[in-house]
Amino acid sequence: MTQYRPLAIITHPQYLAHDTGGGEHPECADRLRVIHRQLGKSLLAPFISERVAMKATRQDILAYHEESYLFRLEETALRGQTYIDHRDNQICFESFEAILLSAGGGLTGIDLLEEQGPDLSFCCVRPPGHHAEKAAALGFCFINNAAVAARYWQRCHGRQKIAIIDWDAHHGNGIQDAFEDDPDVFYISIHEHPTFSFPGTGYAEEKGLGAGVGATLNIPLPPGADDALFLHVLERYVEPALDVFRPERLIVAAGFDGHVLDDMSGLSYSTELFGVIGERMSALAGKHCEGKVLSILEGGYHLDSLAAGVERYLLGLAGMRVKE
Ligand SMILES: [Zn+2]
Prior knowledge:
Mean pLDDT: 97
Number of helices: 9
Low-confidence stretches: none
CATH architecture: 3-Layer(aba) Sandwich
CATH superfamily: Histone deacetylase domain
CATH class: Alpha Beta
Structural class: alpha/beta
Helix content: 25-40%
Bound molecules: zinc ion
Number of domains: 1
Strand content: 15-25%
Largest sheet: 8 strands, parallel
């Protein structure tokens, strides 16, 4: 029998209540439904424990976002408006609570990692977060889940040096904004080149500001980039940079929209690549972070590829321990 490392999946039923317009919008509740269905029938199923996400507090969120924005977001949802800042960012009355619980997923995952729970936490959350800026919703994102998580890890568990690896097809402009002048949080993003892709940031020349110069690493890939190119840049640039930075903890902003069948990007990743990425993230965490990895779901909109990609990623991450 094949054994995998225990894995916590962080979720909440309220994530399904965030209605982006009746199922027409790519960032829809079915994204989570297909993932749960796939994991339920996976070889991984016996090794998974499901945990319910806590709600992020105002203090947690204000570690990155402006208070006036948080009020505006709450008012917009509760007043019954259907979007904020741009029609991409659809919301409903229930969305505000879902957004707080999505941000709280990372915090629950961190507590588990620090309190002798499994070494691997996957936050199966929506809405996603990496485009959200301190006072603006963008690209289906409202609160920056990864940024809030990194600050929580520092504040509540005393882990100072955090690496965030973001391999969603799109640049995580909000995460970069949160930490670009901070030498203690290293933001690394591998994404489709901003000339061709939303949100138009993430050029290789963007390396951080002030004291944070060198603690931002952007690796834009050309449209059509495949598994071989992704793995090349991971080995050539990301792994050596982490050897120098030596993070105490690792956050993975896990987006699956680089899949060849996902029309939200021009990247051409296979499903199998996500398995290899899982193995590499696990190895990096083993080398630097006592094996602990917090993964937070970002994009991924082709439902079958998303479900298969998440399963492959988690199989790679949880690795094979024993073969009999
Ligand atoms: Zn994306």
